Amino acid sequence: MSVSAHALIPAARRLIRAAAVAAGLAAAPLAAPADTIAYVADVESLEGLGEFTGSVAVDNVSDTQATIVVTLTNTSNPLNGGYVTGFAFNLPDGKTPQGAADPAAPDVTAVDPAQFAADYDPWRLENEFFLLGGGVDGPPFGKFDLGASIDPDKFSGSGQPHPGLAVGQTGTFTFGVTGINLNAMTASGLLTYLSEPKQDKKADDPFAKAVPFLVRFRGFDDDGSDKVVGGEERPTLPTPAPSGAVLALVGVGVGLVRRRRRSA
Length: 264
Fold this sequence. Notes:
With 264 residues, the chain is an alpha+beta fold. The chain has helices at residues 5-27, 187-190, 244-263, and strands at 36-45, 52-59, 65-74, 81-89, 107-121, 130-137, 143-149, 170-180, 213-220, 226-233. A hairpin with a 5-residue loop joins strand 6 and strand 7. The protein contains three helices and ten strands. The protein has one domain (32-233). The chain has a ten-stranded antiparallel beta sheet with strand order 5-8-3-2-1-10-9-4-7-6.
């Protein structure tokens, strides 16, 4: 069965992305600034336009204070443009991901607006993101706890997308939070807490569901927009190459086998 070039392009892009994530994980130092880090990538899209990769890192400053750093790279098709204009995720609330109360579970009780920061690579004059807190509305996936957007008071909506992340650009967003049991908060754990879909959504709506991470795209060349669900991506580390000593032993073994065959 023949495969068209159009079918190969998405597969090739996914392969390149997975390799890049794995390479980044392999190159990362063991003693990273963050205590835990999880890699995140797009897993589902409303319109099939936007794509991204990134990471979520947690620095457990103390049992009552932590720093969350979200890094996002816009990996959408450059032929169609598009900008990342916002993202949202959820915070632990003293419960298990299944919703059961747990006195040992982390519980974020406040977000410090003064600690919010956004950096961009490469930097563009237009770039500007604002902190979103107190409930972020990301329909049809419901309410999220925290996020950032180029609009100071909303996640969705229309308008100029240019302050967002262009294709190939990376944004790094820092959030400072306080609460209790925050030494138990992990990056992977953050990606298990889900949004709260609206109760009036139709049961047959496939997108009316709870998700852990959502990225908003606007400004595609066809005037399209998208909302893309993110989830944890676990890259497979490349197998280490054999050391010189191992290769030498293999060479000795091959030589012994050849000698035995000759003597036989």
